[in-house]
Amino acid sequence: MRTRTLPHRLANHPLVLAQDGLATTGQLLALGSPWPTITNRCRPEGPWQRVLPRVVLLRPGAPTPHQRMRAALLYAGEDALLTGPAALALYAVRATPPLARVGAVDVLVPNAQRPRGHSYVRIQRTRRPCRRLPVQGLPCAPLLRAVSCTVPRLAGPDKVTALLAEVVQRGRCTVDELVAELRAAKLGNTPGVANAVEALTVGVRSIAEARAREALRAGGIPDALWNPTLRTPTGEFLARPDAYWPREGLALEVDSEEFHLGPAEYRATLRRRLRMEAHGVEVVSVAPAIVRDHPAELVAAVTAKLRLGAARSKPPAVVVYPANLSVG
């Protein structure tokens, strides 16, 4: 005779442990826990709790962010994938809220399935299947798919630019791969996306650079090369400034710890600036907050430096490679 698993031991069952302490009511029934037991243990004073319809957390206390996401997947069905900001939090994308601050959880399901959104779960049906990738132990849509699911929910073009720029700047994808996904999601021609993609195509790699470019263009300054590679005539790597005007030999650095990795990166920025100046390149340095709040000051400084650079007999002896040209 088959021995049924005792209900009070189910919290340590391998299936439940693999699901972060969660189980569907169907799974609990299959494990030998009858309906009356499930109902009794899910009372307000009981040791279990229903976090979503048909989904039970087999322990007291508030679910963790990870458990909330697992519960959303169990609720939506076995083919469900996390997408949107929840998936991007698992991918450690900084332009969206971190895991502890994720509110609504977006779940991608095949179009033929009919689960409805409930509580914090948002259901996104799709006719465009994608790979299933484990991220921190949870099944997720690929990064770019999560990006395209997030873009329509972002408030304003700056947030769109920040997200798209981050995934490119951090090497998570190429501009071409990003554009292909946005087109497949029918987002390529929406104004905020189109402007962000245009900036990325010319080499812009952060929201601070995008704001600087907009301010300079509004001030009538010719567009620079964005994030080009500068080398010495002998081929030695010199720097990769945020923007560069080759004829005038002027580099723009929109840089601070706010937009980079920390003190070590900031010190590397200062050394890069010294190397450029040692090779005759003039450098304008500006903090992102000044670009945002006082763009006229940036325009005035760049205008003055460009005027001085134009008066040079010849530009600095550096070799310039645009951002979209692969160099060793």
Keywords:
single chain; 328 residues; alpha+beta; 4 domains; four-stranded mixed sheet; three-stranded antiparallel sheet; 13 helices; 15 strands; elongated; disordered N terminus
What can be said about this structure in brief?
The protein has helices spanning 14-18, 25-30, 35-41, 65-76, 84-90, 143-150, 157-169, 175-184, 191-201, 207-218, 263-278, 288-293, 295-310; strands at 22-24, 49-52, 55-57, 81-83, 105-110, 121-126, 133-135, 138-140, 225-226, 229-231, 237-239, 243-245, 250-254, 282-286, 319-321. It is an alpha+beta fold and 328 residues long. Helix 7 packs parallel to helix 9 (191-201).
What is the topology?
Blueprint: H1 14-18, E1 22-24, H2 25-30, H3 35-41, E2 49-52, E3 55-57, H4 65-76, E4 81-83, H5 84-90, E5 105-110, E6 121-126, E7 133-135, E8 138-140, H6 143-150, H7 157-169, H8 175-184, H9 191-201, H10 207-218, E9 225-226, E10 229-231, E11 237-239, E12 243-245, E13 250-254, H11 263-278, E14 282-286, H12 288-293, H13 295-310, E15 319-321
Parallel strand pairs: 5-6, 13-14
Antiparallel strand pairs: 1-3, 2-3, 4-5, 7-8, 9-12, 10-11, 10-15, 12-13
Helix pairs in contact: 5-6, 7-9
